[in-house]
Amino acid sequence: MLYLDYAATTPPYPEVVEAVREVMVRFYGNPSSIHRIGMEAERLVIQSRETIAGILRVKPAELIFTSCGTESNNLAVKGAALAARNRGNHMITTPIEHASVSESVRQLESLGFRITVVPVDESGAVRLDKLEEALDAETVLVSVMHVNNEMGRIQPIADVARLLKAYPAALLHVDGVQSVGKLPFSPAELGIDLLSASAHKFRGPKGAGFLYCREGVRLEPLLAGGGQEGGSRSGTENVPLIVGMAKALRMATDRLDDAIERKRLFRAVLAEGIASIPELRLTGPTDGEGMAPHIVHLTFPGMKSEVVVHALERHGYFISTKSACSSGEEKPSGTLLAMGFDKPRAVSGLRISYPEDYTEDDARRFVTALRDVVAELRPMIRKSKQAGGSPR
Amino acid sequence: MDAIYLDNAATTPMHPEVLEAMLPYFREHYGNPSSIHSFGRDARTALNRARDGMAAILGCKPGELIYTSGGTESNNTAIFGAVSAAQAKRPGVRPHIVTTAVEHHAVLHPCERLEQLGCDVTYVAADSSGLVNASDVEAALRPETALISVMYVNNEVGTVQPIEAIGTIARERGIPFHVDAVQALGKLPLKLDELPVDLMSLSAHKIYGPKGVGLLYMRSTLAFPPYLYGGNQERKRRSGTENVAGIVGFAKAAQLFAQDVAANNAAIERLRDTLLQRLAAALGPDGFAVSGHPVHRVPHIINISFFGLDTETLLMNLDLEGVAASSGSACTAGSLETSHVLQAMNLPDEVTRTAIRFSLGLGNSIPQVEKVADIIATIRRRLTYR
């Protein structure tokens, strides 16, 4: 049995569960209460904020705790655009964003914002030349994800930030849900104004996220009430999960270089294995250049991805089709279409995502199962003139 | 020194059984409910079971429950959603909201925001017991009223509002009716199949459940735009990966504490009587006054003014003695401004400047509240001695 869907969600580290449990038992106060029990809870929130700020090399006051990555993205995109409305009404994004960004953008469009969706190239990277063309004096927000959640392409965030330098009114929001805890970076040093993160993607608990909001960037709050989180996000702080999130991020980043190296080795075995199965096509270069270390994506033209997922499940391997949030649907992947994939490839995407503690042997066993599954399914492959691959 | 926690309206300690129910969903059943494999299906099954359980307790359909990150999100979703829906239905008409002056900030601040955005809001007054008159709500209604929002139980003084009467008026007029029931859950029987309520906000951490989980009940006849957009969880009404463990914990807490409310209330009522009797014996019946309605009230919230002792001084001294109480709602406690609720009740300065909210819970005991009364008497002797 091997769970290979870490991009959908992860098992929290046992130490994280223990920390959450301990806070739930011992530190139940409301951080807004002024008595000792409340202040103990508040201290935990302050410490967690400092821990995360230290890891990201940002100021503690620049972090807003939220209930999840989706909330962080909604708050960043809508909060920043609405607060900047008097300075301009144009925003730029890409066709491969997570739905929590693209749907927020669509909502802004209905409120009168002008939206430019800048294309990506065949590798899935945003076209910097097109982005530069799209920028104008009216641009108040550019939202580009760091690591694509479906196929793992790392976006050239530093280059995007460099282009934005000539447009001081334009803020850069980066959906970092698949990069925080996975890649070594500091949003402040990369030139990011707003960065979204979600705890349960880096082995923290579900129900906690944060938004880095650079000092001086104004956000219109989406939740009004008790004025927690500096007024940017009201609601009693979820103390145990905030503590769990900070602990998970510390554990995920403690030996990050080592973790990345181990994931790269796992990736290399998978990539080589996939390349050796003619029916399958690896997305991105075999050496993983430009790709996130923890995600491998492939297509199986002529085969619906759900069928493969379920066949692998019978062998004890749990992978996914596209992002978990949209996996119920049977439409071709918008991300893969945007990269220029034809329909047979765009409906057959498969995502494998994994932690650092899986071994190369695990990877080899998975490749064997994948080979067996392809053999089982071979008679069912739908032949299509369009099909990108050339199944034997 | 063991602390005596009399701030259960701010938040409650989690019940061990709730924690036990949650832990498997942090450990082995960690799947994303949207995943199509068995890890996802396990998580989905847990979600469905929790939702069905909540729906059975509340007397509504499972599909009418939207899980949120807490009471604040539930309130914001209901209020902003009602206005957006009204604007879509009647473009160009300036929406109007009727609420009360004694609501929680998670209702008042969204309303104030909507005023800035071009809506009208009427804040119906309360009487000196904190009670809102249903006919005052009715008198405030206009043809363009898009929402009535009235809390069930006031979080500072415990007064119970005439929700059925207001809801009946709302029904007659066809106006959506939102009830912030965060302090009512576990204290009053919330039977949505009997109550004329369209939207109701609930929070888990007020009934020995986890922080970070809330519910918005939305009657199936309503369709509001969501607060969060994205992966279309919660039937497109609230996106975001579900907090599976928290949702399971909420269902467990509701199962334990929101069903047999009479038994819980009887225990709390005994604590309340003991506290007040002991205070009367120690301070004399004129040494303090209880705010809030004498009859239309819940047992767990007791707002007491100790004449001659200002709120901050008494709270600090209580804290030093290991007693946790509050000046009002926790969310504004940090600022220690005079409570907007007590101000709206038009109480004399002498009362508002000396008010302390004690909120009782099932973790409290008779000896604890007796001790608190004695401690207050000691503090008063110390502070008023010249």
TrEMBL record, chain A:
UniProt keyword list: Iron, Iron-sulfur, Metal-binding, Pyridoxal phosphate
Q: Which residues form the Aminotransferase class V domain?
A: 3-364
User: Which cofactors are named for this entry?
Assistant: pyridoxal 5'-phosphate
Extract the coiled-coil ranges from the record: none
The domain of life for this entry's organism is: Bacteria
List the Gene3D superfamilies.
1.10.260.50, Aspartate Aminotransferase, domain 1 (3.90.1150.10), Type I PLP-dependent aspartate aminotransferase-like (Major domain) (3.40.640.10)
Question: Of which family is this protein a member?
Answer: Belongs to the class-V pyridoxal-phosphate-dependent aminotransferase family. NifS/IscS subfamily.
Q: Which PANTHER family match?
A: CYSTEINE DESULFURASE ISCS 2-RELATED (PTHR11601:SF50), CYSTEINE DESULFURYLASE FAMILY MEMBER (PTHR11601)
UniProt name for this protein? Cysteine desulfurase
Q: Which organism is it from?
A: Gordoniibacillus kamchatkensis
From TrEMBL, chain B:
In terms of Gene3D superfamilies, this protein maps to: 1.10.260.50, Aspartate Aminotransferase, domain 1, Type I PLP-dependent aspartate aminotransferase-like (Major domain)
- Could you tell me which residue ranges the Aminotransferase class V domain spans? 4-371
List the keywords (alphabetical). Iron, Iron-sulfur, Metal-binding, Pyridoxal phosphate, Transferase
Query: Keyword ATP-binding, does the record have it?
Result: no
Cofactors, names only: pyridoxal 5'-phosphate
**Which InterPro entries did the record assign?**
Aminotrans_V_dom, Aminotrans_V_PyrdxlP_BS, Cysteine_dSase, PyrdxlP-dep_Trfase, PyrdxlP-dep_Trfase_major, PyrdxlP-dep_Trfase_small
UniProt entry tagged with the keyword Glycoprotein: no
Q: From what superkingdom does this record's organism come?
A: Bacteria
- Entry EC number(s): 2.8.1.7
User: Which Pfam families does this chain map to?
Assistant: Aminotran_5
Reaction catalysed by this chain?
A: (sulfur carrier)-H + L-cysteine = (sulfur carrier)-SH + L-alanine
PANTHER family xrefs: CYSTEINE DESULFURASE, CYSTEINE DESULFURYLASE FAMILY MEMBER
Q: Which family does it belong to?
A: Belongs to the class-V pyridoxal-phosphate-dependent aminotransferase family. NifS/IscS subfamily.
State the name under which the record lists this protein.
Answer: cysteine desulfurase
Organism from which the protein derives: Gordoniibacillus kamchatkensis
